[in-house]
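Why do we care about 3D structure at all? Because function follows from shape, and shape follows, mostly, from sequence. That is the central idea of this module. The next example makes it concrete: a single protein chain, its amino acid sequence, and then its structure expressed as tokens.
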Amino acid sequence: MTTNKTSASFRVGKVKAYQRSKIWYLCYFENGLRRRPRVGADRDLAKQMAAQINAQLEIGAPAQLSFENISISDLRRRWLLQHEQVLRSSIQTIRRYRAATEHLLLFVDTVRPIRHASQFRVSHAEEFTAYLRSLNVSPNGHANSEKRPLLDKGIKYILQTCRTLFTYAGKRRHLPPYAGNPFCELGIERIPIENQRSKALLTTEQEFEFLSACDAWQLPIFLTLMLTGMRPGELSHLMFTDFESANQSLKIHNRPKLGWQVKTRNEREIPLVPELCDVLCRMNARSSGTLFFRRKFSTGVAPPLAGLLEPALLNELNLRISQQDTSGETSSARIRDQTACQTIWRDCGIVDPDRIRMEFMRITKKIGCPQFTEPKILRHMFATGLQDANVDPLIRNELMGHSPEGIHGALGMTAVYTHTRPETRRQQLLAALELRPAMKFLHQRLQPASS
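And the structure:
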């Protein structure tokens, strides 16, 4: 190793250092690629870095200065592309990731200009958190809606998404090999949720008033949501073949070829109380198509694709995709196909989940409870009813359609080895639902018909 202070170059094993315009650079080969990182004006620092990198090369470890330095915007683009083309995350998930990381791009463009992802430090992540707390956003994304500060839950989600983004950066060597994830040092899980929206539920009297205020089209929809705990999107995409009146059950299926899947991808079968089964049987005189129709199709007018079974719907979908005009199209093929799938469901007469929400708000306003604006509250009430009735936690998880990995404690592993018998699931669900005001309403409603 050269030790002459006036020399413009020296070598440490496999690493050569040279000076150009008072700046020291290193030169070495790693995995067949030539690397020439810039160190700085300090010769001693260059010697130290050369020795460290030579030691790393000798044992086959990643060299300290060897990584692909890219901008945060380019990092985000590659990360979303991985979710799109490799992991095949759902389109809605990718949209949420894009919206969350858009805040980070605005921060590094307008507040704290940072050129490369490798320059983003823990101090910047802390400053970004303070920036998020200063924002006012539209809760539903509409430009004309009243703005409010980001809630703690939303801030945590954005920070967790950015942490995942930088984890990807580390794995793809877009950060220095021995640099940590700046968002991991924030202690995101310890951020308290102090300003979340209240989770008030309908009282017994309000639930009874709600059902009494439903018209003939609304009642089967909201009874099904109350007594099965399914998501509005799951109800919308139920086909008539999913309803088994003989077994008194509803099956929730993924239909990826038609562009729809359960949120957690977990298919499940939900037992039905006999009274709800009776309501669904009276509602439908059909044997195919979607189980629930839009209001305008509930009076005898058939939607364009009424009566078609899934193979025929797939043929119609393929025909529409082949007829798409892709000239000048900038969206991905998945988004174009998803749009075609949505037209298929529309022409089947599907009830839009947004329409279910609007109908829910009309009823709650009608009974003097305008503070309830989301039909998801019916799913919360279903889960609470299972808890109140001491339903087995594993059965609760299955009925709600949650992923087994999401259960805390030993139940996550228990779920892998446990197989619940259908009669056990049915017995516990029926026992829990007998306590619900909706069942009292059904008994009163169906009594005149049975007599």
